[in-house]
Specification:
Shape: globular
Low-confidence stretches: 1-40
Radius of gyration: 17 Å
Structural class: alpha+beta
Oligomer: single chain
Strand content: 25-35%
Helix content: 10-25%
CATH class of the largest domain: Alpha Beta
CATH topology of the largest domain: Aminopeptidase
Distance between the termini: 33 Å
Length: 219
């Protein structure tokens, strides 16, 4: 078994690995850990585990979180901007998961206290360019920096996919997300080719771009 750990020197932690199942257990308070087990990367923050979503096994959890995200965003679009025709309907989520599977992309699942609480995805738009999609963390878990951990893992995945440029779009009312993206070197840009946001709605969105390399700032 191949293993590489990165420890925070200010915390005492215990990690147990089961050779049979490659289980990863965070047993105490942990600021940040990254591990590689038999080619599959895992990371942890605040006692929460960030890992690659397993096709089939995790589809229900991933789809449920994405539907929660879209349902919330659609309600906000309707209440704040009067938009009643969202760019993506929740009923299409499960069928679209294949767009974020290797070799085209990657799906990440965040688990806290043994239950799924966050999700994030990245997909290839074209050679050298990837797009972050469907980042969401349940409100009760956002104080553990799970969102920033998911984004950092997605940026690592983009690098491994050979995509130095990462794009994303976000609604204008998602101000907390905007701060996170800017802390990771994203800058505003014009709408990009391949975005799912139709032209009639693009004035309600902000479009971001990040080009590697960039030194991360504290979230």
């Amino acid at each position: 078994m191949r293993r590489a750990d990165k420890w925070s020197p200010s915390y005492s932690s215990l990690i147990k690995f089961s050779r049979e199942s490659a289980e990863f257990m965070v047993c105490t308070g942990l600021s940040a850990v990254s591990s590689v087990v038999e080619g599959g990367a895992m990371s942890a923050v605040g006692g929460c585990l960030i890992r690659g979503a397993e096709p089939g096994l995790d589809d229900d959890a991933v789809a449920a979180l994405m539907v929660d995200y879209l349902t919330w965003a659609i309600a906000r679009l309707a209440s704040e901007y009067g938009v009643d025709e969202p760019p993506t309907h929740p009923s299409l989520v499960r069928d679209g998961l294949s767009n974020y599977r290797p070799p085209f992309g990657k799906l990440l699942l965040a688990e806290c206290d043994g239950r799924p609480v966050g999700v994030g995805a990245i997909r290839t738009l074209r050679s050298g360019i990837a797009e972050v999609k469907r980042m969401y963390v349940e409100p009760g878990w956002r104080d553990r920096h799970v969102g920033s951990a998911i984004l950092d893992r997605l940026l690592d995945e983009a690098r491994e996919m050979g995509a130095p440029t990462v794009l994303l779009d976000t609604c204008r009312f998602m101000t907390e997300a905007h701060r996170l993206y800017r802390s990771r070197g994203f800058v505003e840009r014009s709408p990009y080719e391949g975005t799912e946001i139709p032209a009639r709605l693009q004035h309600l969105w902000i479009f971001f771009e990040r080009s590697a390399p960039f030194a991360r700032q504290p979230s």
